[in-house]
Amino acid sequence: MSGLTWEDARRGGGRRIIVPVVMSPDEAARELAPRLSALAGERATASSHGEYARVSQGVPVVTIDGYSGSGKSTLAAALASLLPGWQVLHLDDWYPGWDGLAAGSDIARRLAADLRGGRASSYKAWDWEASETGATIRVPLAPTIIEGCGTIEAEADLAIWIADPGEDERRARALARDGQTYAPHWRRWAEQDLGRSID
To answer: By the 8 A CB rule, do 79 and 89 touch?
Structure first.
């Protein structure tokens, strides 16, 4: 029996799934992968017939959100290993610095709209060491998972929210992943992150 909770998404015509704390990323990925494959199949079938094909050649977009250290990147990697042909985009690649959660979310919204609307897209990478924008990264038209804090705001075919395992656990995971470079910014980021609502 599924441990996932399904509900209607707030916007975008898709569904929202909540992954509980007790479910590992691998378990969640095994349950979610067939549903994502079905999304891609539905889009491909719809785009190959009649009037709809002329209107939209969009691809499915799935977002993965949750508070920092909740397991978004791990779940995205587990899904990518089960879904050939899907690309994974990470908000960490374009947040404009430690105060950039809202701006990163805006970029995720634009990318999702482009891809679902049948348009390839792009974003400016963020150079964390130089604290400035870097190269323009092209995003091809392919089924896409966008993961990171702030993706819940994007209109997607499916929005995945990872339940909060608690601040102590999230902080331990984040610091194990990013080392002490993240430590001085944890509270600064948390003020943006925890201030968000998924309702």
So the answer is: no
